[in-house]
């Protein structure tokens, strides 16, 4: 069943519109399994895609918000505060504590802007990053610290 689910996920991402492609995908899966399993697999695929789309939008919004906050703080001199108009309200924005922190945040801002550009390009292209679950590797399944017995 896992192979069928993987193939369905690939075909759903290629076709794009799940509402239109769902009956076609379900019929293709039904050729290799029962109709009940085909419906369950195709529904799960649609749920995975919907979750990935919501997560992508949330991530983009978080990046936009973080970038806006960092730009406001970087506009203030080191160690000072300033009143800034945000929407229809005025807020007090503290600057960063020292030059080193200011420099590190400026570097981080450039990284976040690059990430935002990548996310926007993925969204424009309709590209989603979906990883199917599975059994964890043995290194993750074992506890990190072991207590000595007795």
Summarize the structure in short:
The mean pLDDT is 82. This protein has 150 residues and is mainly α. Helices cover 65% and strands 8% of the residues.
Number of helices: 5
Low-confidence stretches: none
SS elements, strand count: 2
Structural class: mainly alpha
Give the distance, in angstroms, between the N- and C-terminal Cα atoms.
45 Å
Enumerate the strands of the largest sheet in spatial order, edge to edge or round the barrel.
1-2
| Helical coverage, percent range | 55-70%
Beta-strand level of the residues, as a percent range? 5-15%
Report on this model:
By secondary structure, the protein is mainly α. It is built from five helices and two strands; from the N terminus they run H-H-H-E-E-H-H. The protein has helices at residues 2-15, 18-30, 35-74, 99-125, 138-141; strands spanning 81-86, 89-94. The chain has a two-stranded antiparallel sheet with strand order 1-2.
């Amino acid at each position: 069943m896992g192979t069928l689910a993987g193939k369905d996920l690939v075909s759903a991402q290629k076709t794009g519109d799940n509402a239109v492609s769902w009956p076609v995908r379900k019929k293709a899966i039904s050729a290799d399994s029962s109709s009940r399993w085909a419906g369950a697999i195709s529904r799960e695929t649609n749920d995975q895609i919907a979750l990935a789309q919501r997560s992508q939008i949330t991530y983009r919004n978080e990046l936009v918000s973080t970038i806006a906050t960092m730009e406001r703080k970087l506009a203030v001199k080191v160690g000072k505060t300033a009143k800034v108009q945000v929407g229809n309200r005025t807020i007090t924005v503290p600057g960063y504590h020292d030059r080193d922190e200011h420099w590190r945040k400026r570097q981080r801002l450039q990284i976040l802007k690059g990430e935002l550009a990548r996310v926007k390009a993925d969204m424009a292209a309709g590209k989603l990053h979906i990883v199917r679950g599975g059994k964890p590797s043995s290194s993750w399944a074992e506890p990190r610290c072991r207590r000595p017995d007795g």
